Every structure is written in C-alpha cells, then in structure tokens.
C-alpha cells in the first residue's frame, strides 16, 4: 500500500484541478433546461472511469438520466464492491447568496466551494482516484469493483428501483459502498450505520375560481392561505410531537446502550445552536438533539405559496394555497403507510369551505445496519489509516433511499463511507468540501479496498 499512498500524495494538486472540471458542469437534474448538462456530466464521469483504468465503462440509458457503469473484475475469489454515487446536483438558488459562482470551483482557506463539491461529485471522485492509484502503481486491485453512478438522486431516484430490478445480475456484489454523507464533525471521522427514510407530499387548497378583492369579498368566503396555516398548525403539538393518528405506531425505540453511546460523543449543543444561527433549539420533548435528528421521525413544512408576494400591497383573497411537507422516517416506519396516514389526516382537518388535493412527490425507506458486521469494521480500519483517528459510529438524519433498495432487491449490506462535514452547505448556497478530508478520503478509500479484500 505504501506506493499507492505515495502516488495519491504526489498527485494532490492534480486531483483538485480535475475536480474543478467536474464541478464546472451544471448538472442540475431538477431543471429541464440543464438536461444537456446532466448528460455532459454523465459522459465526463464515464471518461474519468476509463482514465482511472476501469473496464466495460458505458452509459446505460434509463427513462430519465443515464446511469454510468464501469467495473474491474480481475480478482477471482475476492469480494466485489458495488460503489454507488450520483453525478447530478441540486439547484443553486438563491444564487445571490453565493460568495463565488456556484459552478466556478474556488478554493478558500483549504476548502473548495462549488455546487456538488460535497454532494456528491467530490466524494464520487475520491473513489475514482483511489482506484486509479491502485491500477497505476500495481496494475491491479485487491478486490473486484463495480461503479454505479446515477443522475437522478437529487430528484428522488425515480427510475432507480426499476433499474436495479432489471440489472440484478450485472449489479451483483458482496457489499455496497456509498460516499454521500458527512463525518460526525470536523476532525472526527465517522461511520454511519443508519439513515432516516422520507415521505414528501404537496397540499393544494382551492377556495374560489380566481383571486378576489379582499374588500368586496372579505368575510364572504374562506381564505385558502389562512385555512392552510390553520391546518399546518394542527400537525404538531406544543411539545413537537406529530399529531397524525398512528404516526408513531411502528417507530423502533432507541436502545438504552445506543443512547448511552451517543451521550459520550463530543457534541456541543451550544456551539451547534450558534453555528445554525438559531436563538433556541426545538424538537420533540423527551429526546436530545442527536436523538431527535438521528432516530426520531419528523414532519416539516418545506415551502409555502399563496396570494401576492411581490413588493408593495395588493389586497386579494388568494384563490389557492400550497404547502410542501416532508416527513423523515425511522426504522420500522413504512413510507406508503405514513403517506396514507398523512393524507387521511389532511382530509379530516380540511374544512368544507375549500377543496383539497394531496400529491405524493417521492419517498424512501429508512435503513440501519449493525455496526459490528465485517464490512463496517473494515471501513473503520480504513478510515483510521486514512485520517489517523479511530472513527466514531453514528446515524444520519438524511435519507438515501437507494440503500434500502440495495438491501431489499440485491440482498446487499451497505457501508456509508462519507467524508463531508455537517457545515458544508449541501443543498444550500456556498456548498464546500474540505480538501484535507477529500485527500484523506482518497487515501482511506484506497485502504478500504485492501481491508475489504481481507474479509474473504
């Protein structure tokens, strides 16, 4: 491994220059006007795999954006890793809050700023470079590897389940490795063993056929904006507990030993609050902040729209109002069950003065593994070698629906091998990736292949 690590260290500057090229492609999957850019990012990813020495590299078409596939399967008898990541990125709005242009990667104070730097191009790229280092220096890998990089993760991976279902043989492996998550904190590498699931819905209310003059018609009809506010206020009690009947029925309770382990983690709640800019933290009563963000379900309003929102005044009663609502789920909650409970509750609390429509947008199942399985242990050893510190084990509040898909359809365990940081603004302006973590992640990834090879 010494020559592999030396190669990585010598090429640090080249990696950053190449990553800047990757980050310059505005592969925003949510916006149709960037469809050509999304495909260009897929093609760039494929070329990077070829340059690294991967074989059988190709773009596989789907009803949406293409999947980039490549493999190296010349280690008979050794385990096979299926590496999953995504090349699409989130929209950049509000663009005026970016210090530097979102698709002109800029290095400041040891961090590279650009959309996709942490989520997920930077973390995908570190694995490509780790493979390159092995193949350039030794001519081989210590195990087999398959790359499966999609372009629809940021829009719910709507075609992914069907793709996996129809490519089971091609994607067969021993373990999935995913680098699309943060470390516990700066200087504290970690291995994530649990993710929350997701249900995302839109509520639309209509009161009248068009907006009305609030003087002429105020007091005669219900105001959909006000009705929506009243309905949303009925979603939680004052203690932060969700009031949807049956919502908590399947929630797997936290184990006492897990709660005790999390209390030992170096988490500073005051610093956390100040970094968020929040006057006070809030959440479900009876649980710590880490417990609420990792192991308890949530219901959040993600967006509201109604009436006149421009400058100045316009006295109207809006005809319609809309809210986007997400629910993060924990083991053993089922997204379809929760979505149905939510829809039923919305209809129950909707007054007859308005019409209501509830639309399911997308969702995903929660996931958790035991952190004493051999692949997770191998990942822990690799992280320690790459970063010089023993990792902590934690859950993550976000969702990666494909993890449950791999478990259900391919019967594969997953290792979450992320090197982002909690403050790196994924999905927000000024997204960034710590270059020390990026380089440490390349080294750790190179060690990961060696460590997993030893499990068989």
Mean pLDDT: 96
Q: Count of DSSP helices?
A: 15
Q: So what's the overall shape?
A: globular
- Biggest sheet strand order reads 1-2-6-3-7-17
User: Can you give the helix content as a percent range?
Assistant: 25-40%
Strand content: 15-25%
Major beta-sheet overview: 6 strands, mixed
- Our Rg estimate from Cα atoms comes to 23 Å
Structure write-up:
The chain is of the alpha+beta class and 456 residues long. Helices cover 36% and strands 21% of the residues. It contains 15 helices and 18 strands. It has helices spanning 2-10, 12-23, 35-52, 121-138, 160-166, 168-171, 214-217, 224-233, 256-263, 269-276, 289-295, 335-349, 374-387, 401-409, 435-453; strands at residues 55-60, 67-72, 80-86, 106-108, 111-113, 144-150, 175-178, 190-195, 197-206, 212-213, 300-306, 316-317, 320-329, 355-364, 367-368, 392-396, 414-416, 432-434. The protein has a six-stranded mixed β-sheet, sandwiched between helices. Helix 1 (2-10) runs antiparallel to helix 15 and helix 13 (374-387) crosses helix 15. The protein starts with a helix and ends with a helix. The model has no long low-confidence stretch (mean pLDDT 96).
